[in-house]
Amino acid sequence: MSWDIEKLDIDAYLRRIGYDGPHTPAAGTLRAVHLAHVRAIPFENLDVLLGRDISLDLGSLQDKMVTGGRGGYCHEHNLLFAAALERLGFTVTRHLARIRLGGRRHLPRSHAMLTVVAEGRTWLADVGFGGEGLVEPMPFEDGASVRSGPWRWRLAREDDFWVLYAGEEQLYAFRPEEPQLPSDFEVANFYVSRHPQSPFTRHVLAQRTTADERVRLEGRSFATAAELAGWLRGELGIDITPHEAETLLPLLPD
Q1: Are 49 and 57 in contact (CB under 8 A)?
Q2: Within 195-241, where are the H helices?
Q3: 39 CB-contact burial (10 Å; exposed 0-12 / middle 13-18 / buried 19+)
Q4: Which helix (H) or strand (E) holds 100?
């Protein structure tokens, strides 16, 4: 099985995220591209709630998130990001992790994230968690920590798992010796986008990360679909039609 990274227009991707730095597989490049991606491409699940299939083939990801100007959720973000990193010369491994928000420990492996080798060192990279997810990569080492703006993360080895924390809250846990294949992501993506217990099938989730703020749809109210569409366009850079906004309006989170 192949990830088809040759289908990615790397120049178009780098323009999309506003990155014009070095193209060498160095740690500084990894950090800069990771940061640029998180700030440029919003996290959102709108297509799930609009009844559209979420395709993970690279051509579809590129059409939606690079040339189409839209965002996506973890599988979309991190598979696109992985392809871009490999085109830049990095060694990337794709993983699936178990979400641990709220203290839960036995959820399915549904979250997509990456480990990346740069200059002989392995890094945890994840541009698609949403919420309080990573903004920049961090060393894949027990006890490692990183700060970016007002946020702090740490990585800890706990029994057979590696666990990522945002502050004191566990985000997810995974086993790095279990790299996943494209078929594994297809199964996880089907669960995330179709299962009635998935948070992505029940409420609108959308956010954009700036240097010091998470701009979220959560907690906002809109009297009309036009107001919702205008906010998404102005604050997150997401263009939707009035009909789509009308569908999404009753699904806004509290």
Answers
A1: no
A2: 225-231
A3: middle
A4: none
Q: Which two three-digit tokens encode residue 115?
A: 């480990």
140 φ/ψ angles, rounded to the nearest 5 degrees = -85, 80
Sheet-wide strand order for 43-44: 43-44, 206-209, 214-216
pTM score over 0.90: yes
* Helix (H/G/I), strand (E/B), else coil: 2: coil
Return the active site residues.
74, 111, 126
pLDDT tens for the chain, 254 residues: list them.
Answer: 579 999 999 999 999 999 999 999 999 999 999 999 999 999 999 999 999 999 999 999 999 999 999 999 999 999 999 999 999 999 999 999 999 987 777 789 999 999 999 999 999 999 999 999 999 999 999 999 999 999 999 999 998 999 999 999 999 999 998 779 999 999 999 999 999 989 899 999 999 999 999 999 988 889 999 999 999 999 999 999 999 999 999 999 87
Beta bridge pairs of residue 215: 208
Q: How far apart are CA 97 and CA 77, in angstroms?
A: 15
How crowded is residue 3: how many other Cβ atoms within 10 Å of its Cβ? 19
Q: Pseudo-torsion of CA 17, 23, 27, 28, nearest 10°?
A: -60
The partner residues of 116 in beta bridges, in order of sequence, read 92, 123
Amino acid letter, 213: E
Give the C-alpha distances (Å, rounded to integers) separating 136 from 10, 29, 32.
Answer: 20, 11, 8
As given in the structure block, the two tokens for residue 148 are 């970016």
Q: Does an H or E element contain 28, and which?
A: helix 27-40
Instruction: State the Cα torsion 33-215-191-51 to the nearest 10°.
Output: -110
